[in-house]
Design a protein that fits this description.
The structure holds two protein chains of two kinds. By secondary structure, chain A is an all-alpha fold. Chain A has a single domain, classed as MetI-like fold (Orthogonal Bundle), CATH 1.10.3720.10. Chain A has 15 helices and two strands. Chain A has a two-stranded antiparallel ribbon. The longest helix of chain A is centred in the first third of the chain and has 33 residues. Chain A is globular and about 70 Å long. Chain A starts with a helix and ends with a helix. By secondary structure, chain B is mainly alpha-helical. Chain B has two domains: 49 residues, no CATH class; 211 residues, MetI-like (MetI-like fold), CATH 1.10.3720. Chain B has 15 helices and no strands. In chain B, α8 runs antiparallel to α11. The longest helix of chain B has 36 residues. Chain B is globular, with a radius of gyration of 23 Å. The mean pLDDT of chain B is 87. Classes of the chains: A mainly alpha, B mainly alpha. The interface between A and B is large, with 95 and 101 residues. Chain A: It holds the Pfam family BPD_transp_1. Chain A: Keywords: Cell membrane, Membrane, Transmembrane, Transmembrane helix, Transport. Chain A: This is ABC transporter permease subunit. Chain A: It is a multi-pass membrane protein.
Chain lengths: 307, 270
């Protein structure tokens, strides 16, 4: 949508080649000022300032010296950077598909005429409005190796040993993924529901007459009908997963070892625990660059489709 | 799959989803050191009491944090909506040449998340002497351009005739906004407002950094202090979580329809 708005807007600005009336311009810009002031100070300025800071050695007291690209060199020769980057993308690989598939399944169920539909939909959606601290606290306790209900449930199902969900590097990402899925799947579901409602019912009627079974109807009508919502969701979830911080900060503290340290936590630790603001600013710039790269890919993909 | 089986699956899934919250409330009512582990613990309600709630409210500043969250949420939402509406009005109804440039500039705000500008944002807040001040949370909360995009779409739907008729009467721009566009986009403003409020209420990373004293914290950023506080037992942590969750759940139940609609709108369009 963002891309589309940009494009539409460009079009209309070109069409209307009006003469420049200074007073008219100023009057219109006046209405943008209230938004533009905080936007400039707390968004545009920090972006530029971050680029500037990244070229310096910068402590909590302020600028110390100009070092050109030395901070970036430090980042790229450090093996930590690649492992945190990999951690972030590993989480994307786990969380994005699971949350989208689960969200789609829930949306398909809710879209049927089942009993207590509204209540069940609310139950699925409710976790989304809770704050990340509440969600992380709950799952921190649920995943407790000794007294946690998750292991209790697995014992009932016949698992003989306790799983150290949050301290075993083989399971810790799954614990974070389950937590995140539970928290945000309601959002995905609601968007798919909105998408499902826009697919015309006569397509299904026609397919039924043609003898297509439920699976084929899903494959040939439902999925294509959801393709634009799907694309938006995939990119939205990728970006969301890359921003992972609260869950690991509260549930694992980046551990065991460094196995759940992510890009954002890396920036946080470098900046606020080690007081190396310049280096952290350079890391932020790398993160910004990754975000912009994803936006470009998204732009290209939606562009091709919309023509 | 037939309808009955689907119903059963749906109910089972709903129970699974509700489980963590039910468990949280149950544990929050159990005395220190008592775990809700086996099925027996679930049905044993004889030892339930509200002592934990009394203790958490007495020993921590959780009510104060709730109040701060509320104040910050309301201020951020109201100011955001007004500013976004003004800008949306300008983009939608006022023809001006530099419109495209400003629009691209503002939409670019969607590209880079707060997480990516943490360090310079902190530095900026430090310079403006905003650290440990609630305005350090409110002001950066006003930079989200999604409100402008959404409200602009709704303002585009306000018929040109209304605007032109009012202009012939000689109404100034401000009157066009205040007495025509604002009332006609009221329901969109409610949806966007709810979305902004949830964002603010659940905002974690930035308040976690920008607020340093316990009395100025908001709920989401204050809760983790329970972890480092050794005098708090594990059940009390669940009580604190429950206290933080209760207002959200009540508001959700009351405004459910608007919330779902607002979230769907912002998500599909965003």
């Amino acid at each position: 949508m963002m891309e589309r708005t940009l494009r539409e807007n460009k079009g209309s600005a070109l069409r209307r080649a009006e003469p420049l009336h200074l007073l008219k311009e100023l009057k219109a810009i006046l209405y943008l000022i209230p938004f533009l002031v905080p936007f400039s100070v707390f968004y545009l300025w920090p972006v530029l300032r971050g680029a500037w800071m990244s070229l310096h050695v910068w402590g909590i007291q302020g600028m110390e010296k100009y070092v050109a690209l030395a901070n970036y060199r430090k980042i790229f020769v450090n093996a930590d950077f690649y492992s945190y980057l990999w951690n972030s993308f590993y989480f994307v690989l786990l969380c994005t598909p699971t949350v989208i598939i689960l969200g789609l399944v829930l949306a398909l169920i809710i879209n049927q005429n089942i009993r207590m539909r509204t209540l069940i939909r609310s139950v699925f959606f409710l976790p989304y409005v809770l704050s990340v601290s509440v969600v992380s606290f709950i799952w921190l306790r649920l995943f407790d190796a000794k007294n946690g209900p998750v292991n209790a449930l697995l014992h009932v199902l016949g698992l003989p040993v306790d799983i150290n969900w949050l301290t075993d590097h083989r399971f810790v990402w799954w614990a974070i993924t389950i937590t995140t899925d539970w928290w945000s799947v309601g959002f995905v579901m609601v968007l798919f529901l909105a998408g499902l409602q826009e697919i015309p019912t006569d397509h299904y009627e026609a397919a039924k007459i043609d003898g297509a079974n439920a699976w084929r109807r899903f494959l040939h009508i439902t999925l294509p009908g959801l393709s634009s919502v799907m694309k938006i969701q995939i990119f939205y979830q990728i970006i969301n997963c890359l921003k992972l911080f609260g869950q690991v900060q509260i549930m694992t503290g980046g551990g065991p070892g460094d196995s759940t340290n992510t890009m954002i936590r890396y920036i946080y630790v470098t900046g606020f625990k080690k007081d190396m603001f310049g280096l952290a600013a350079a890391q932020s710039m790398v993160f910004c660059f990754i975000m912009l790269l994803i936006a470009v890919v998204q732009f290209k993909i939606t562009d091709r489709k919309d023509g | 799959m037939n309808k009955a089986a689907l119903n059963i699956v749906a109910v089972l899934l709903a129970l699974l989803f509700a489980f963590p919250l039910l468990w949280m409330f149950l544990t929050s009512l159990k005395p220190d050191g008592v775990n809700v582990y086996t099925l027996g613990d679930w049905v044993n309600w004889s030892d339930l009491n509200a002592d934990n709630y009394v203790k958490v409210v007495r020993d921590s500043q959780i009510l104060r944090w709730t109040w701060n969250s509320l104040v910050i949420g309301v201020l951020t939402t109201v100011i955001s909506i007004l500013f976004s509406s003004l800008a949306a009005f300008s983009f939608s109804k006022l023809p001006f040449r530099t419109r495209g440039i400003f629009y691209v500039l503002i939409v670019s705000g969607l590209l880079i998340p707060t997480e990516a500008i943490l360090i310079p944002l902190y530095e900026t807040a430090l310079h403006l002497d905003l650290i440990d001040n609630i305005w350090a949370i409110i002001l950066p909360g006003l930079t989200n351009p999604i409100g402008i995009l959404l409200l602009k779409q709704f303002m585009d739907g306000v018929p040109k005739d209304y605007i032109e008729a009012a202009q012939i009467d000689g109404s100034p721009y401000f009157r066009l906004w205040w007495s025509i566009c604002l009332p006609l986009t009221r329901s969109a403003m409610v949806s966007v407002g709810i979305f902004f409020f949830i964002l603010s209420w659940n905002n974690f990373l930035w308040p976690y950094l920008a607020i340093t004293s316990e009395e100025n914290m908001i709920l989401s950023a204050g809760l983790p202090t329970f972890l480092s506080n050794n005098t708090m037992s594990l059940n009390l942590i669940m009580t604190a979580s429950a206290i933080a969750a209760i207002p959200t759940i009540i508001v959700f139940i009351l405004l459910q329809r608007h919330i779902v609609q607002g979230v769907a709108m912002s998500g599909v369009k965003g």
